[in-house]
Amino acid sequence: QVQLRESGPGLVKPSETLSLDCAVSGGSMKTSYWSWIRQSPGKGLEWIGYIYYTGTTNYNPSLKSRVTISIDTSKNQFSLEMNSVTAADTAVYFCARGYCHDTMCYAAYYDPWGQGTLVTVSS
Amino acid sequence: EIVLTQSPGTLSLSPGERATLSCRASQNIGKYLAWYQQKPGQAPRLLIFDASNRATGIPARFSGSGSGTDFTLTISSLEPEDFAVYYCQQRDSWQLTFGGGTKVEIK
Which of B88, B68, B30 lies closest to A44 in space, CA to CA? Predict the structure, then answer.
């Protein structure tokens, strides 16, 4: 059973870069899509983007200029970088796998998710 | 951006009752809608995908219906573990969006 766990700094200064990793266990990364989603009281759930194991990416157009998602299948992990952060980027950040059903894996439905990690942007 | 509007904001029901949750899209999204359940302090869990397909391991009391702009999640008989917040999510456009959620609380 695939499990995901986020890690990274809980506090980032304004204008700096937010960096998070997601460790994947219990399955191969070479089967599905791997995504980042965040949740804040003000904006609710917001999709950030996904990466396929081949390295193909797709980002939320509203965040695309500031976001990079990368993958290292040899380490069974994928990562998020978001630059020029502001207080509006304060949120719980989740990593998630594209849902796989029968022989199909979806890029845009997600299960399972990691437990989430709170990132606060503040000086 | 496709906006998903969920109603009601809060649903107060007793165990054993039927819950009907609504999600309305700002434009036609075909069948490309999912429903998630989120409990306090936990990540969302996928319940329904492509409007009416139950995800693996989801009990039969959960069902989804609808297409186009109007969608419904029905819980036929609420169990104690079903009291949570429910979100819809669309995948019709590549700016995936979520609804604001419906909280199902114990009456």
Answer: B88
Identity of the residue in B32, B45, B100 whose CB atom sits nearest the CB atom of A111:
B45
Of A44, A108, A113, the CB nearest to B91: A108
Which residue in A62, A99, A107 is closest to B55 by CB distance?
A99
Closest CA to B23 of B82, B75, B95, B101: B101
- What are the C-alpha distances in Å from A65 to residues A28, A31, A123? 30, 27, 23
Q: How does pLDDT run along chain A (123 residues), one tens digit per residue? A: 899 999 999 999 999 999 999 999 998 898 899 999 999 988 899 999 999 999 999 999 999 999 999 999 999 999 999 999 999 999 999 999 999 988 889 999 999 999 999 999 999
Question: B98 vs A44: CB contact, 8 Å cut-off?
Answer: yes
* pLDDT exceeds 90 at position B17: yes
Type of residue found at B48: I
Give the chain A residue nearest B43 (alpha carbons): A115
* R_g of chain B computed on alpha carbons: 13
Q: Are the C-beta atoms of residues B45 and B97 closer than 8 Å to each other?
A: no
> Is A96's CB within 8 Å of B43's CB?
yes
B44 with A62: Cβ contact below 8 A:
no
